[in-house]
Amino acid sequence: xxxxxxxxxxxxxxxxxxNGPASSTKITTVTKLTKSEVQRAIGWLACEGKLDFETKGRxxxxxxx
Length: 65
What we know:
This protein has helices at residues 2-19, 24-31, 35-47, and strands at residues 51-56, 59-64. By secondary structure, it is of the alpha+beta class. It has a single domain (2-64), classed as Winged helix-like DNA-binding domain superfamily/Winged helix DNA-binding domain (Arc Repressor Mutant, subunit A). Strands 1-2 form a two-stranded antiparallel ribbon. The N and C termini lie far apart (25 Å). InterPro entries: DUF2582 (IPR019707), WH-like_DNA-bd_sf (IPR036388). Pfam families: DUF2582. It comes from Methyloprofundus sedimenti.
């Protein structure tokens, strides 16, 4: 399980590195990961201190730190 989370985290990190801030919905759509995979990977990256989160109104964007 942790190996698949690590792979998903790498995919998300690469996506954000190439494309800049994005919502979790956009990340899910573009990477073709499931919502659960995205949530787990975002949690992994957040615990490692690699992500920033910004909320404007109802929208939250995720970016690399």
